[in-house]
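User: Can you write out an input/output pair for a complex, sequences first and structure second?

Assistant: Here is one pair. Inputs:
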Amino acid sequence: DTGVSQDPRHKITKRGQNVTFRCDPISEHNRLYWYRQTLGQGPEFLTYFQNEAQLEKSRLLSDRFSAERPKGSFSTLEIQRTEQGDSAMYLCASSLVSPSGNTIYFGEGSWLTVV
Amino acid sequence: QKEVEQDPGPLSVPEGAIVSLNCTYSNSAFQYFMWYRQYSRKGPELLMYTYSSGNKEDGRFTAQVDKSSKYISLFIRDSQPSDSATYLCATLRRDSWGKFQFGAGTQVVVTP
């Protein structure tokens, strides 16, 4: 499977615990994105990287959230001191920047439930 | 007000009918337009992508963009029960490459 891979697919955690999600993008893609999706809503932008540089962060990304892409390949999204409001699906996506377009391809998502 | 508006549905159609979906957007800076299909508890899957006004066809799918009206549409011909899913429209500004704006999605149910 050469698509975007996310791990774990499901995570149940107690409030106050830290969680980390990993994303492996499509191998030749240089852009990597994190989105969050709650029930009945479309994905909301959190942040994105071009290679290892984090180029933009949403105001949704509070200081409890941190994302890294240390070698310009895989990325991690860490949520510290989780709250019930963090329960959502965290989607990773990747794209290849080219003159012809900028479409993004999503992984299957990581479901987070904070109890 | 959200930058991309989409009727949440559900939209129920009989098998074989044409499914008509649409979105409106508020910002004329949006240059790129996409439709995604999302099955329950799965990630969105890219269906169609366009960056100009007019029609784009791919098999049973036709995407239509009217930039003057800020209106985008997706038509699915000869609908099948396997087309039952949530359909998301998405837009992108030329000066904000990474920040895709999504509609809330329209749930479609195709009944046999």
